[in-house]
Design brief:
By secondary structure, the chain is of the alpha/beta class. It contains ten helices and 16 strands. The longest helix is centred in the middle third of the chain and has 27 residues, at about 230-255.
């Protein structure tokens, strides 16, 4: 009923007032998530692949240099982003491996970001990758998404989509994954141009298999491994990233064409660090996907909102994926309905008014495989069983020198904080 009323009021408003008045309507939210894209892959971060449309986003908005995902793998990162809480609290600490883990997923009883928007009259949609539960009970339509077209597991062939879903129904959705996701997103925006919307554009790219639009089943070379990191697949990876970039541009162009740009916040980031496709000379951080070093969870991120975010801004504040839940709801004026137990913090004032964003302890848990990592300002600690590593990222951004013995006070304090964190997130609180 609430959504119907909001949509009716918006329609009446649009009839009475020209499109330029969209700026006075509730803001639209678009979140674009890349897969396995590290900072060092992009020329935006002095990497090796040019992405002109995302670079343009940064020129017109805010570029983040210390943005992190809550984990260095897919499922936990997405769970934290969608719930605004540490992934351990919802029981997702590792990659969900499809039908082999029938009881793994975000419970529909847990509040999610799209649910908040849907309950407040927004049209909501997810196109692309879910990876937060394979069974029907965990399907995105049970978490606040009006529409879902995409795949439930962690990866997909870019041309064969027999296991994709349209809502709860399994359907073969023809086309090339990146372009399907972009096209569906644009079509959703056009249908909802007169209504507030929350859109989650969750790309498969640049996750393996490394396949371009030309790599249809009929064109594949027998014996070639589409998952291997080699020069041939590196060229395909570059093409895949640039095709994703074009899709980002198409979405931004659509917002401009519909006179929605000044009333739409677009956030772009990646779900974890790189997989090692970058030539060695571009690898500025240690580690990558499946690693607690910076290369595993420090990711590219850009926020774009013409007229609201001052152009050309850069943020060096430590911001994490689960901060998007309180931030986006705060920007939309919906934060009063947020759960009281969110772990993330709103950076709205930092984004829109260039105010400072306070430091806080941040934890990157991936037990038991990797142990637990922690950031406290420039200090970074990684603890696994009896192994303790301590780095000062300002002096040693590549995490080469373990200084645990030189700083016993910092070591003791951070180790105690990690112990408290592990107890807290596993206590059911």
């Amino acid at each position: 009923m609430l959504r119907t009323l909001v949509c009716l009021l918006n329609c009446l408003w649009c009839v009475a007032v020209p499109n330029s008045a969209h700026a006075d309507s509730p803001p639209n939210i678009v979140v674009i998530l890349a897969d396995d894209l590290g900072c060092c892959d992009m020329a935006l971060y002095n990497g090796w692949v040019k992405t002109p449309r995302i670079e343009q986003m940064a020129e017109q908005g805010m570029l983040f240099t210390d943005f992190h995902t809550n984990s260095s793998v897919c499922s936990p990162t997405r769970a934290a982003f969608l719930t605004g809480r540490y992934q351990q609290r919802v029981g997702i600490v590792d990659v969900i491996v499809g039908s082999r883990e029938p009881q793994s997923g975000i419970s529909p009883s847990i509040p999610t970001l799209p649910r908040v928007f849907k309950d407040n009259g927004y049209a909501t949609a997810l196109f692309g990758k879910w990876h937060c539960g394979y069974q029907d009970q965990y399907n995105p339509v049970h978490h606040g998404f009006d529409e879902f077209v995409g795949f439930l597991n962690g990866a997909t062939d870019y041309h064969n989509h027999g296991a994709w879903r349209v809502g709860l129904e399994k359907q073969n959705v023809p086309g090339y994954s990146t372009r399907i996701i972009t096209d569906r997103s644009i079509e959703f925006i056009k249908r909802n141009k007169d209504n507030p919307f929350f859109l989650y554009v969750s790309h498969a790219a640049v996750h393996n298999p490394y396949q371009t639009v030309e790599d249809t089943p009929d064109n594949r070379v027998e014996g070639e491994n589409p998952n291997r990191i080699n020069d041939k697949n590196r060229d395909k990876y570059r093409w895949m990233l640039q095709d994703l970039d074009k899709g980002v541009g198409q979405i931004l162009d659509t917002l401009h064409e519909l006179d929605l740009a000044e009333n739409t916040l677009v956030v772009f980031f990646s779900d974890n660090g790189a997989v090692g496709m970058s030539p060695k000379e571009f690898r500025r951080f240690r580690g990558g996907k499946f690693s607690h070093y910076e290369g595993g969870h420090r990711v590219p991120a850009v926020a774009w909102w013409p007229g609201k975010i001052k152009a050309g801004r850069q943020s060096d504040k430590l911001i994490v994926g689960f901060d998007l839940f309180p931030t986006l709801t705060d920007i939309a004026g919906l934060s009063k309905g947020n759960p009281e137990n969110l772990d993330g913090a709103s950076f709205k004032a930092h984004l829109l008014e260039q105010k400072d964003f306070p430091d806080r302890d941040i934890f990157f848990g991936y037990e038991p495989k990797l142990g637990t990592a922690m950031r406290r300002g420039d200090w970074k600690m990684i603890v696994k069983e009896e192994s303790v590593q301590l780095f000062n990222l300002q002096l040693d951004p590549q995490e080469i020198t373990n200084v645990v013995d030189q700083h016993p006070g910092v070591t003791r304090s951070m180790k105690q904080a990690i112990d408290r964190f592990k107890t807290n997130v596993t206590s059911g609180s």
